[in-house]
């Protein structure tokens, strides 16, 4: 039985938790992989989007953007496969916390910028909706970090 | 059994190092984006009394009658002219000018500058956007967005300069400034691309 199953209270919980964790893992991992695929073709554009937040010096936004893209690919793939799920989820939690702070600061400062999160698929600017989406993903990632990978994991 | 916290931390550090290594390798294959320096066009009275545009920064000449084009002001630095809505309309009426709307498609459909092409910054994420085919790199290109704190026009201008557009300008006050000046607008989600 998985760690999640062991921690669940009662037989019903033991059946539901592993499937819930699988769903959380696939949603978060899949979204991170998808987001990275939309940005990797033109990392300079993503670097420009990061520059728009006015939180980092322009000379390092491209490097920082590339690091984020490759972390998204690596952690997203590992979550989907269920390998090293907890460390991958931990890094995703860190990234989502970073995204939340950056998005919140942009909303507070009234910046009219593209968040760059999902490339051409999200062009409506940033706002409360993007903050709520980040919080939902953060909750799912924390769940996987705390409880483990759930069903159909190739590793731990 | 839950893995010990120490092991999770070590595995996370390994992942971070792997991502950093991949990013470093990838970095060697990515072209550096030019640093964009916005330069407001000044007007100076000509001999015949008609005001003509000029720029205070060192910029290479050429590119029609609308002032100096986006020019290399140093290694990795490109100067992009900033024009007022009135000046942009003047250029549109006298020169081959293409407007680029960097806002999202919904805002573009609600109203845009005459003949503008919708090219949101997010479209550049995967490489060259499809709408780019409607633009001519050699022609004067004027980019605008929401104005104020909007960064999209500068970012789109940077991408266009990278793609070889020779004469890129920005309307810094953006679409709201254009509307406030009482200048003509179009609506709908299609565009003609330029004034000719």
Task: Describe what is shown at a glance.
The complex is a heterodimer of chains A (156) and B (196). With 156 residues, chain A is mainly α. Chain A has helices at 3-7, 11-39, 43-52, 61-81, 85-109, 128-147.
What does this entry look like structurally?
- The complex is a heterodimer of chains A (156) and B (196).
- By secondary structure, chain A is mainly α.
- Helices cover 71% and strands 0% of the residues of chain A.
- In chain A, helix 2 (11-39) runs antiparallel to helix 4 (61-81), helix 3 packs across helix 4 and helix 4 (61-81) crosses helix 5 (85-109).
- Helix content of chain B is 29%, strand content 21%.
- Chain B has helices spanning 5-27, 85-94, 105-110, 152-162, 174-180, and strands spanning 35-40, 42-45, 51-54, 71-74, 77-83, 97-101, 117-118, 140-144, 167-171.
- In chain B, strands 1, 4, 5, 6, 7, 8 and 9 form a seven-stranded mixed β-sheet that branches. A two-stranded antiparallel sheet of chain B has the order 2-3.
- The longest helix of chain B has 23 residues, at 5-27.
- Chain B starts with a helix and ends in a 16-residue tail after the last helix.
- Classes of the chains: A mainly alpha (156), B alpha/beta (196).
- Chains A and B meet through helix 3, helix 4 and helix 5 of A and helix 1 and helix 4 of B.
Features:
heterodimer, A: mainly alpha, 6 helices, 71% helix, elongated, B: 196 residues, alpha/beta, seven-stranded mixed beta sheet, two-stranded antiparallel ribbon, 5 helices, 9 strands
């Amino acid at each position: 039985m998985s760690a999640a199953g062991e921690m669940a209270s009662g037989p019903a919980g033991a059946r539901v938790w592993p499937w819930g964790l699988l769903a959380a893992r696939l949603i978060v991992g899949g979204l991170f992989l998808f987001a990275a695929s939309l940005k990797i073709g033109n990392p300079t554009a993503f670097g420009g989007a990061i520059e728009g937040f006015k939180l980092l010096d322009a000379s390092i936004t491209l490097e920082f953007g590339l690091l984020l893209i490759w972390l998204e690919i690596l952690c997203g793939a590992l979550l989907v496969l269920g390998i090293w799920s907890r460390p991958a989820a931990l890094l995703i939690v860190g990234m989502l916390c970073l995204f939340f702070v950056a998005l919140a600061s942009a909303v507070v400062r009234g910046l009219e910028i593209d968040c760059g999160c999902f490339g051409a698929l999200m062009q409506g600017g940033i706002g409360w909706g993007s903050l709520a989406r980040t919080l939902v993903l953060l909750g799912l990632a924390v769940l996987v970090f705390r409880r483990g990978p759930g069903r159909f994991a190739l590793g731990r | 059994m839950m893995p010990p916290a120490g092991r999770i931390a070590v595995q996370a550090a390994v992942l971070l190092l792997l991502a950093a290594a991949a990013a470093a390798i990838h970095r060697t294959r990515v072209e550096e984006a030019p640093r964009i320096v916005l330069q407001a066009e000044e007007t100076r009275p000509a001999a015949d009394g008609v005001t003509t545009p000029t720029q205070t920064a060192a910029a290479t000449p050429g590119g029609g009658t609308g002032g100096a084009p986006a020019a290399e002001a140093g290694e990795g630095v490109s100067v992009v002219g900033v024009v007022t809505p009135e000046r942009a309309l003047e250029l549109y009426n006298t020169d081959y000018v293409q407007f680029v709307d960097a806002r999202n498609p919904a805002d573009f459909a609600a109203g845009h500058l005459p003949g503008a092409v919708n090219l949101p910054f997010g479209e550049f994420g995967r490489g060259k956007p499809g709408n780019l085919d409607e633009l001519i790199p050699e022609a004067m290109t004027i980019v605008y967005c929401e104005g104020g704190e909007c960064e999209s026009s500068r970012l789109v201008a940077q991408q266009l300069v990278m793609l070889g557009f020779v004469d890129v300008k920005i309307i810094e006050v953006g679409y709201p400034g254009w509307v406030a000046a009482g200048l003509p607008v179009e609506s709908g989600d299609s565009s003609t691309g330029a004034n000719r």
